[in-house]
């Protein structure tokens, strides 16, 4: 891991910080690579039960680094965007999708500018905790392009289609209160990082098997039929019942003590 993105793991919670603060965490090729690498690392690190993704005090991520536009445009020529290099995604889409596909819950702690590609990255986590001064925008049409970093897929989980169309077509900037109203933001608080860590710590106290199963169940059934959703509930529940961590959760609850789970 480079110093572009840092990872600090304590008490089963991984704090991932985009660390290009002098550029408001703007996305150039190295920053894109570092974000993907961080997501892949925490996804495979044993013992991690929750992740907090954040930027700096002035920006979560201000979007594309315009100084890199020429290099990125060159990479996109021909079929440059078409190869699926990261599962169902290309490299640019993986910056957001890596958080959606992380097997444990991810919480974004958001201050300041969250624009363009940065907004799409923020849509990948399970929750978004924003400061009152956070500013958001689906900014791509301002530069004559469309959102192409997984944002359209991820946004459909959160907002109505007409709102998504409005924000995409106009490239307008909107604040935290409006984002909360539209379902983009989960909570607004003066200290998003502290609140995100509080939530992550609460999650990390649960059975790691159940945490992963719950995220898998929710993710798999977001767009499935009622019948398929009910089948998925039964299948995943059957996998959990009677396992060591499930029994430990029951015993700890009955004995009114802290559980001792095995990752």
3D architecture notes:
Helices cover 44% and strands 15% of the residues. It is α/β, with parallel strands linked by helices. The chain has two domains: 199 residues, Alpha-Beta Complex (2-enoyl-CoA Hydratase, Chain A, domain 1), CATH 3.90.226; 49 residues, Lyase 2-enoyl-coa Hydratase, Chain  A, domain 2. It has a six-stranded mixed β-sheet with strand order 1-2-3-5-7-10, with helices on both faces. Strands 4-6-8-9 form a four-stranded mixed β-sheet. Helix 3 runs parallel beside helix 4. The model has no long low-confidence stretch (mean pLDDT 94). Belongs to the enoyl-CoA hydratase/isomerase family.
Number of helices, where a helix is a run of at least 4 consecutive DSSP H or I residues: 11
Class from helix and strand fractions:
alpha/beta
The end-to-end span amounts to: 23 Å
Oligomer: single chain
Architecture per CATH nomenclature, i.e. the level-2 architecture of the largest domain: Alpha-Beta Complex
Strand content: 15-25%
Keywords: Fatty acid metabolism, Isomerase, Lipid metabolism, Lyase
Family: Belongs to the enoyl-CoA hydratase/isomerase family.
Protein name: Enoyl-CoA hydratase
Organism: Maritimibacter alkaliphilus HTCC2654
Supply database-style keywords.
263 residues; alpha/beta; 2-enoyl-CoA Hydratase, Chain A, domain 1; Lyase 2-enoyl-coa Hydratase, Chain  A, domain 2; 2 domains; six-stranded mixed sheet; four-stranded mixed sheet; 11 helices; 10 strands; Enoyl-CoA_hydra_C
Outline of the structure:
This protein has helices spanning 29-44, 69-76, 91-100, 117-123, 151-155, 161-170, 176-182, 192-204, 208-220, 226-240, 244-255, and strands spanning 5-10, 13-18, 50-54, 59-61, 106-110, 113-115, 127-130, 135-137, 173-175, 187-188. The chain has 263 residues and is α/β, with parallel strands linked by helices. The mean pLDDT is 94.
């Amino acid at each position: 891991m480079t110093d572009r993105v840092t990872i600090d793991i304590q008490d089963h919670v991984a704090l991932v910080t985009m660390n290009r603060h002098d550029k408001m965490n703007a996305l150039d090729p190295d920053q894109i690579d570092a974000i993907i690498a961080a997501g892949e690392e925490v996804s495979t690190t044993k013992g991690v039960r929750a992740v907090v993704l954040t930027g700096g005090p002035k920006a979560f991520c201000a979007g594309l680094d315009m100084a890199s536009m020429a290099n990125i445009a060159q990479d996109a020529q021909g079929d440059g965007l078409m190869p699926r290099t990261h599962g169902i995604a290309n490299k640019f889409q993986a910056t957001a999708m890596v958080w959606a596909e992380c097997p444990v819950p991810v919480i974004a702690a958001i201050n300041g500018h969250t624009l363009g590609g940065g907004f799409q990255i923020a849509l990948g986590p399970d929750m978004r905790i924003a400061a009152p001064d956070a500013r958001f925008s689906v900014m791509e049409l301002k530069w004559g392009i469309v959102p192409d970093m997984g944002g359209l897929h991820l946004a459909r989980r959160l907002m109505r289609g007409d709102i998504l169309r409005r924000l995409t077509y106009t490239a307008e900037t909107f604040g935290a209160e409006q984002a909360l109203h539209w379902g983009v933001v989960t909570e607004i608080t003066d200290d998003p990082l502290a609140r995100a860590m509080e939530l992550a710590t609460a999650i990390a106290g649960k059975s790691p098997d159940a945490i992963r199963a719950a995220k898998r169940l929710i993710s798999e059934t977001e767009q499935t039929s009622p019948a398929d959703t009910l089948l998925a509930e039964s299948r995943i529940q059957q996998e959990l019942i009677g396992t060591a961590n499930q029994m430990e959760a029951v015993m700890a609850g009955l004995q009114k003590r802290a559980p001792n789970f095995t990752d």
